[in-house]
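Why do we care about 3D structure at all? Because function follows from shape, and shape follows, mostly, from sequence. That is the central idea of this module. The next example makes it concrete: a single protein chain, its amino acid sequence, and then its structure expressed as tokens.
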Amino acid sequence: MGLDFGSKLRDALAQKEIIPFIGVYDAFSAAISAKYFDGIFVSGFSFSASFYGMPDIGLISWSDIVAFVQRIRTILPQQHILVDIDDGYADIEVACHVVSLLESIGASGIILEDQKRPKCCGHLDNKLILSLDEYLQKLEKVISTRKDMVIVARTDANDFDEIIKRVKAFDEVGADWLLVDGVSNLDLVRAVRSHTKKPLVFNHIAGGKSPSLSLTELKSHGISAVLYSTPCLFAAQASIQEAIQDLKAGDGLLSSKNTKSVDLASCQALLEENLRNRDAL
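And the structure:
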């Protein structure tokens, strides 16, 4: 498999100016999302919920995330795949190993955060962050390890001055894109934009800290990439709960209400399309 997925993503951004990435929790949700969007986001929150049934508190194994990305790339040979690798799984050498593996299987880019453990979702309170020097050491090593993939440097800092200091430092050491997570005020986005020319990433999550804005609105504020971390996971939770409740209330009777617009034929059609995509690689 070629190692030019990072270049393809950069070219796409140059043409489109803003790219949405849909957070997925398994290969099936990725296949559905890919019918409508070119960008796929391997969300740590969604993966932890789906694969472990646990909150996003640093439980993810790097080997699990690499295997997951490989499954997605197998059925989606054309999509841009952006991968959340948390803190690089704590150790610098592990972070670089994961970056090498992800690039070899076709990931378009990774997001490396500056949280320290115990970690949590970027839209929750009481986050702890690494010292800037400690994070930069890891970020620089990751940047020097990758060959082509996009490296997104993420800060979870809350203090305005600290955020600006970190964004400028991330830019200077060569991060491709920059992400300030848990932004609640767009004045901060404008301030960050004034300190760097690098593409900015915005993280949307339902019920999170950030305001709900359209792609057009975000583009007008200087955002280049938008992460939708949990739409698939939250939709699945709501739909599964409703379907199981209906099944229980209906004495186990499968009705059109239970299946909505999906039945065996439509599900099988999607799976067979994935098979054709795999064979086309």
